[in-house]
């Protein structure tokens, strides 16, 4: 009659991979009456839950509770996919619940559970299912906010969960809330990276928004990775945005030091610098200089990982809100591709004021975009999509009418659309000389009134 039942007095903790054994501890009740076999009647279904929760770190203990009625004589716990139930028969007053203990959570314990109970009226309906998830089976993914974890109050943000491995599903969970996990299929990028994009919002300052993400395989949906590092989403106020600029050129070679300056005339007490796709901020106290509050963020030695788009924020010490974000600033890392790029000028490197010139950037190997820089200028480089003019790829940068402002040293670079912040070796420098006197406005093509943008793909 009781073949396959697990009694706390007769079985040690253990079990094989297919049928994990649970230590059954029964509380609250003792029934010595005979087992009654009656057809299931309209008995209330029991409640099933897990402590400390339904998501358990691999190796940690978990207790599954099943609560029925005072008339319950026996409890049974079923795991989906397993043919052997776990039964608790020895109940102690008042006989309204049973405890099933897992001393060390493994992948084999993960799954979907239901419980029911028997009383003199028969067997109850099964409980609602309990999804028992084991975490820590795989390495942790990354979690970042696009474009930034600081979001205007009432605005939306996209959270990107990613991994270099091809797991099939990503899960996003908000901490501190009794909300169901959100699951999305993974998408593979050109780089080979896998990711899922979760829209979140609207963001409100009164709510604390902290998230983690996980991933799992389709055929084992209750076996999850380690969690990502937590990501907190902050609501920004309506304070005026600061400015962000580089004290050198926005094109930086590996090994150099880069300083980014965030400043404002609002008088912020502190500033934060954020790189798109990263999880953390860099924070720095503000310093007053000539009526402006500013902070310098020194990065280096520079490597390819420093390439990307940056924004900064300001805040007052007595406020938890950050300002609106600065305009974005693109930092470009050179010497990442070793194909030769050349730069020439037509009609020649010496030109009279008021004439027109064309700087021609070329390469034998394909680049999607060419960039033109002027030495000593902090404004963004000029960008043009390359065109194939057999046998080379090229871009023509027209200038004119030229003035003395155009005099200087120019270089060009190539970049690819899949990594627009990584550049080739620079071309040899080209000296442009403008002779004669002429008007001296800042030429429109070199003002850099807008930050360099990645090319359209």
UniProtKB/TrEMBL annotation:
Disulfide bonds join 66-115, 161-213. It holds the Pfam family ig. GO terms for biological process: cytokine-mediated signaling pathway; immune response-regulating signaling pathway. InterPro entries: A1B_glyco/leuk_Ig-like_rcpt, Ig-like_dom, Ig-like_dom_sf, Ig-like_fold, Ig-like_Receptors_ImmuneReg, Ig_sub, Ig_sub2, Immunoglobulin_dom. Residues 432-457 are annotated as: Disordered. Keywords: Disulfide bond, Glycoprotein, Immunoglobulin domain, Repeat, Signal. GO terms for cellular component: plasma membrane. One of its GO terms (molecular function) is inhibitory MHC class I receptor activity. Residues 44-135, 242-330 form the Ig-like domain. This is Ig-like domain-containing protein. It comes from Chlorocebus sabaeus. The lineage of its organism: Eukaryota, Metazoa, Chordata, Craniata, Vertebrata.
């Amino acid at each position: 009659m009781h073949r396959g039942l697990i009694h706390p007095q007769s079985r040690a903790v253990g079990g094989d991979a297919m049928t994990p054994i649970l230590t059954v501890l029964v509380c609250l009740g003792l029934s010595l009456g005979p087992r009654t076999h009656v057809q299931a009647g309209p008995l209330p279904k029991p409640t099933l839950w897990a402590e400390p929760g339904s998501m358990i770190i691999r190796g940690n203990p978990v207790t599954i509770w099943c609560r029925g009625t005072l008339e319950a004589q026996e409890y049974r716990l079923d795991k989906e996919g397993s043919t052997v139930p776990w039964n608790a028969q020895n109940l102690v007053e008042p006989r309204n619940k049973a405890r099933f203990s897992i001393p060390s959570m493994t992948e084999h314990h993960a799954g979907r559970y239901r419980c029911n109970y028997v009383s003199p009226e028969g067997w109850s309906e099964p409980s609602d299912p309990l999804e028992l998830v084991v975490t820590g089976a795989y390495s942790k993914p990354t979690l970042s906010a696009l474009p930034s974890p600081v979001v205007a109050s009432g605005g939306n943000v996209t959270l990107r969960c990613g991994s270099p491995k091809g797991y099939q599903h990503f899960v996003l969970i908000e901490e501190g809330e009794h909300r169901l996990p959100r699951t999305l299929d993974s998408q593979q990028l050109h780089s080979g990276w896998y990711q899922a994009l979760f829209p979140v919002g609207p963001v409100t300052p009164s709510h604390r928004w902290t998230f983690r993400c996980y991933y799992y395989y389709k055929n084992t949906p209750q076996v999850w990775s380690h969690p990502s590092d937590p990501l907190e989403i902050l609501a920004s106020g309506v304070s005026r945005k600061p400015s962000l600029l580089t004290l050198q050129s926005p094109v930086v070679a590996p090994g150099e030091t880069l300083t980014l300056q965030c400043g404002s005339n609002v008088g912020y007490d502190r500033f934060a610098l954020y790189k798109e796709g990263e999880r953390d901020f860099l924070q720095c106290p503000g310093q007053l200089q000539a009526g402006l509050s500013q902070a310098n963020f020194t990065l280096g030695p520079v490597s390819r990982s420093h390439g990307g788009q940056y924004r900064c924020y300001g805040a007052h010490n007595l406020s938890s809100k950050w300002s609106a974000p600065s305009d974005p600033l693109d930092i470009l890392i050179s010497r990442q591709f070793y194909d030769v790029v050349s730069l020439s000028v037509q009609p020649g490197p010496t030109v009279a004021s008021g004439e027109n010139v064309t700087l021609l950037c070329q390469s034998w190997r394909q680049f999607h975009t060419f960039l033109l820089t002027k030495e000593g200028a902090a404004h963004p480089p000029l960008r043009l999509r390359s065109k194939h003019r057999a046998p080379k790829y090229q871009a023509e940068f027209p200038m004119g009418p030229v003035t003395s402002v155009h005099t200087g040293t120019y270089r060009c670079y190539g970049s690819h659309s899949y990594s627009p912040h990584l550049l080739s070796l620079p071309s040899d420098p080209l000296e442009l000389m403008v002779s004669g006197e002429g008007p001296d406005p800042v030429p429109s093509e070199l003002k850099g009134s807008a930050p360099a943008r990645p090319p359209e793909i």
